[in-house]
Design a protein that fits this description.
heterodimer; A: 383 residues; mainly alpha; two-stranded antiparallel ribbon; B: two-stranded parallel ribbon
Chain lengths: 383, 274
Amino acid sequence: MKNPVRPAGRQSLCLSRGARQRQRIAGAVGQLFLLTVTSLSALAVFAIFFFIARDAIPFFRLNGFHEFFTSTHWYPSAGQPEFGALAIFVGSGLVTLGATVVAVPLGIAAAVCLSDVLPFSARQVVKPVIEMLAAIPSVAYGFFALVVLAPLLQQKGGAMLAVTAWIIGAPIAGLLVLVLSDLAADKVPERIRIRTRWLLVGLLGGVALTGLWFAGQALAGLEIPSGTNALNVSLILGIMALPTVVSVSEDALQAVGRDLREGSYALGATRAEMLVKTVLPAARSGIVAAVILGIMRAIGETMVVWMASGNASQIPTPWYNVLQPVRTLTATIAGDMGEADQVTGSSRFHVLFAMALCLLIISFLCNLGSEWVQRRTRRKTGG
Amino acid sequence: MNTWKTAMIGIAALSLAAGTVLAQAAGKIVVDGSTTVGPIAKAFAEYYMGKHTEVNITVSESGSGNGAKSLINSACDVASMSRPMKDSEKQAAMDAGVMPVEHIVAMDGIAVVVHMSNPVAGLTIDQLRDIYTSKTIRWSELGGPDKPIVVISRDTNSGTYETYESLVMHKEKMGEAVEYVGSNGAIRQRVMSTPGAIGYVGLAFTEGVKPVLVNGVEAIPETVVTKEYPIARPLYMYTNGEPEAGSSLAGFMALSVAPEGKQIIEEVGFVPLP
């Protein structure tokens, strides 16, 4: 017996002085280690900001802000170089907008379908398949866009657009016609209600069909001279952003919980009413976060836009003409980096960092925006 | 990247050798200069180092002007240039005690290509310039079908762009609607699949697309060598004096006229001298 004085119970609870000291030191070291690891990632962000800004500021000092933000003349390699990036900003904005138009409705619809419509067994299959889209490397998307989609758009672009218009337009028009006729029929006396409704369905349906037919004809007549354009890239970027949007908004919809859904049913709501009036508003902040994440995915993508956007530094005429080639910030940075002379510290080198800084600021603002929306909704719902 | 690896090994071996056997430092060749000539220099270096393991060759691509500067400052043994040395540069070299000697290693010819279905058979340099400055925007203006011209250029980083700009554009800036792609292969792919497209590629990349006559001359190695074809230029390497006979530098410079060297030049897309 080494410590005959100590009772057995105390011995198990108390440590010797040396052991206590060791434990305290080990605890402090462990905390310090975790703190270092955590702050490293935060520090990385600051370091990136610092180093990009350090190389971006000389550009603005040499050339000022005016040309960079207002001119569309991008000739970095000419004898008299011009660094007008306005068209490049517009190009980035246009393809991001296009990707959003593709990814957001599709993504939210898919998320709703996954969380509330599909049976559990189907969901187990569909969700991983959608998430697999995120695992495809972007150069593979770029190759597909350049080698498959671009020639396809050139050969059958008009017909493809017309079919797409029908696929999107027909169900929406159908729903609108039915809902509108129902609403209008409610206003007439009960005696002729059913007859009025069918009459209205026929009438509005005819109008919608004619409209769609003319729109389809107009689109089918379109000829796309160059398949590497903003539309091509928007489609691909939209598909690339899809898994992010679906995954995050599905999580948000799941987080709404059974109580709200069942409460909604208990008040007599149909499934559509429950989804549109209760679940979607309750999940709004999560869905906004999903959309912003999707937008950031699209705006930061480089390989696809470098390969398939055409890289022409022009503002399309009119500005929303997605059938013309555009150039984006990311593609310009990637494409012009090789020759830009770091040693002599030329404007041609620093202008790329100025663009990187702008991209960084844009994504920073996006993050702030999503944070703000989430906080505001949390306050409103009191959650 | 094979060249990288060999370069790294070269540097490592050199730093070892420098400390121990000074005599071996004579087996070091530094090449600097044009990005256009770079691929030839790199391929030569790889081939030569494979044959003579005691020689280390480093190739950098900082542009023709910087290559000339390096030679004048004796920072390199070979200055690769896509243009002849200017008189002012030669003078500066003489003042620094360097005697630049010109070697033409290969010819660079650029074919202008259109889609196979395009009936336009020939264009002049002026017409090409009008197309690339967006003054001519439809094929019907050039006797072709009534289609918009899809103008495709190499990215401004490439030596091919540099050549085209100096020989066709004559300092005029390309139009804003010109599309830029990253490689010869990508231009061929785009032109092959786009009926209204026009692009320019190295002579080795005309399969599947239709090269047009420029100023009435066909883009083939024979016309490029004689400079009859207008979008052609010699590629140079400059050394300080004639390389000493029997030295590794002389062996390296002799590659451009050796049969293996000619094959290498063809493989990287240029035209060897006859």
